[in-house]
């Protein structure tokens, strides 16, 4: 889970780090990226992107561009359907893509591994 993912680019390094991780590990792992529907600072969602459903991305990754109307109940159903072995959260400080998912995972008694990247979200830097 990451606030911004390709085609987003304005958040810089975190997007590229995740893309590189996916590219290098995709031959051995299936990736499902849950991300936002717009780039850093943008008021409007991406053009020509399908929202709130899995779409095929590069390297065979599946990407879910979540609209702002998404809810914790919706996220719970996605996690339950996927039953991931590992959930990677790309920022310690993202309410939408770390704290809310952690709450959902805790309440559904998720028993897989959770990895939290110790980085700040670009949205919260000064």
Sum this structure up briefly.
It contains 3 helices and 5 strands.
Q: Keywords for this structure?
A:
126 residues; alpha/beta; three-stranded mixed sheet; two-stranded parallel sheet
Distance between the ends: 23 Å
Task: Summarize the main sheet.
Answer: 3 strands, mixed
In terms of quaternary structure, the protein is: single chain
Q: Largest sheet, order of strands side by side?
A: 1-3-2
Low-confidence stretches: none
Q: Assign an overall shape.
A: globular
Number of helices: 3
Helix content estimate:
25-40%
Structural class: alpha/beta
The tally of strands reads 5
Average pLDDT for all residues: 90
Q: What is the alpha-carbon Rg in Å?
A: 14 Å
Order of helices and strands: HEEEHEHE
Q: How big a fraction of the residues is strand?
A: 15-25%
What is the topology?
Layout: H1 13-25, E1 32-36, E2 54-56, E3 62-66, H2 72-82, E4 86-89, H3 95-107, E5 113-116
Parallel strand pairs: 1-3, 4-5
Antiparallel strand pairs: 2-3
Helix pairs in contact: 2-3
């Amino acid at each position: 889970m990451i606030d911004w993912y390709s085609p987003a680019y304005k958040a810089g390094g975190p997007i590229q780090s995740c893309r590189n991780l996916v590219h290098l590990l995709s031959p051995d792992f299936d990736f499902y990226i849950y991300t936002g529907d717009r780039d850093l600072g943008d008021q409007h969602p991406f053009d020509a992107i399908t929202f709130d459903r899995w779409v095929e991305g590069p390297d065979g990754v599946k990407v879910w561009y979540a609209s702002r109307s998404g809810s914790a109940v919706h996220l719970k159903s996605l996690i339950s359907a996927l039953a991931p072995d590992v959930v990677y959260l790309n920022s310690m400080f993202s309410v939408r893509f770390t704290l809310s998912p952690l709450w959902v995972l805790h309440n559904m008694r998720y028993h897989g591994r959770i990895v939290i990247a110790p980085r700040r979200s670009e949205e919260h830097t000064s």
